[in-house]
Design a protein that fits this description.
This protein has 2 helices and no strands. The chain has helices at about 1-30, 35-60.
């Protein structure tokens, strides 16, 4: 169950990052460099968060033969 929730959070972050990059693209095309820049920054941070959610979920829900940890 933890793995499903963790991966779900990662997917939500990916969707938000895609939306931010889409908004950044619109900002660049319309000549609003500040909007394009800052939404690119936000999209980058959200992409990093998604990657961290996927990797963290995989590490912390991995089956191990050592039950002592």
């Amino acid at each position: 169950m933890k793995r499903i929730l963790g991966m779900g959070v990662g997917v939500v972050y990916i969707v938000l990052a895609f939306a931010a990059f889409t908004r950044a693209s619109s900002g660049w095309e319309e000549g609003h460099g500040d909007i394009g820049f800052w939404f690119t920054v936000v999209g980058g941070f959200l992409s990093i968060a998604a990657l961290a959610a996927f990797i963290g979920t995989w590490i912390h829900t991995k089956e191990s033969s050592d039950e002592a940890h």
